[in-house]
Design a protein that fits this description.
Shape: elongated
CATH superfamily of the largest domain: Gcn5-related N-acetyltransferase (GNAT)
Radius of gyration: 22 Å
Number of domains: 2
Number of helices: 5
Structural class: alpha+beta
CATH architecture of the largest domain: 3-Layer(aba) Sandwich
Helix content: 25-40%
Strand order of the largest sheet: 5-6-7-8-9-11-10
Number of strands: 11
Strand content: 25-35%
CATH topology of the largest domain: Aminopeptidase
Largest sheet: 7 strands, mixed
Distance between the termini: 49 Å
């Protein structure tokens, strides 16, 4: 067996109410897994649990069925044993050093490449776009007051963001990126909320950022997360308009 997929959720299944169980489950028994059926666990009950696990893995919310967001209770198919399923997101945001700069740059480049594809940009017609210049752009940012962070699951990097102290309590947010295959799990918001908390921790009161003005979906996403549009600027060397946004904390 050669498992190549990194699982971003792990699960704990607990027996919370007992009855006559053909499989021998007793109150207090717990089972842990990421994907698949835990050793010794009731396979019939797993048929009920697995769709709930997949819902969570795909970014769903169990509150839509009257449970908690990532936690629920249900009875086994025989109606004898009540189980509790609890999911834990393994993704963590941590400060990083510049020693693995090439890895971080690769995540940024691959993440922003989908934007380049959407707009039809290439190295020839948009050489300054981040999808083609990630390593040099990240390296140029390294100085006092620069804070890079990465999103990890089991030591695998799949998200990146950085903050730069630009003075007077303001911090510039740059390169917020999540690999395409890890999107729609809420990790972009996780990175953004982490940065907001960090700026407050640093004693700051404002975050600024720039976006591709023509990317209406991204602009709306930042607006939904507390940012206001403050202006635009057109640079001759870029095939798009740069938009500016900020959020007060």
């Amino acid at each position: 067996m050669n498992k190549v997929i990194t699982e971003n959720f792990c699960f704990k299944i607990s027996v919370v109410k007992g009855g006559c169980c053909r499989n021998g489950h007793e109150v207090g028994d717990t089972y842990n897994c990421e994907y698949g059926c835990p050793d010794g666990f009731c396979q019939k009950t797993m048929l009920k649990l697995f769709p709930l696990m997949e819902t969570i893995r795909c970014g769903g919310d169990l509150r839509t069925i009257g449970q908690e967001k990532h936690k629920c209770r249900l009875y086994c198919p025989d109606g004898e044993i009540e189980f509790e399923l609890e999911a834990f997101d393994k993704a963590v945001v941590v400060p990083i050093s510049t020693k693995r700069l090439s890895e971080y740059a690769d995540v940024v480049s691959r993440s922003f490449s989908t934007i380049a594809e959407d707009f039809g940009w290439t190295r020839e017609n948009a050489p300054g776009h981040l999808s083609f210049t990630a390593y040099d752009r990240l390296r140029s940012k390294i100085k006092d007051g620069y804070y890079p962070y990465a999103l990890f699951v089991d030591e695998k990097i799949f998200g990146f963001v950085s903050l730069t102290d630009i003075g007077d309590g303001a911090y510039e947010l740059n390169q917020l990126a999540v690999l395409p295959e890890w999107r729609h799990f809420g990790y972009g918001k996780k990175l953004l909320d982490f940065c907001k908390a960090k700026v407050r921790e640093f004693g700051g009161n404002k975050i600024t950022l720039d976006i591709i003005e023509e990317n209406a979906r991204l602009k709306d996403w930042y607006a939904a997360n507390g940012f206001v549009h403050t202006g635009t600027k057109k640079y001759d060397h870029l095939p798009f308009t740069t938009g500016y946004m900020e959020a007060s904390l």
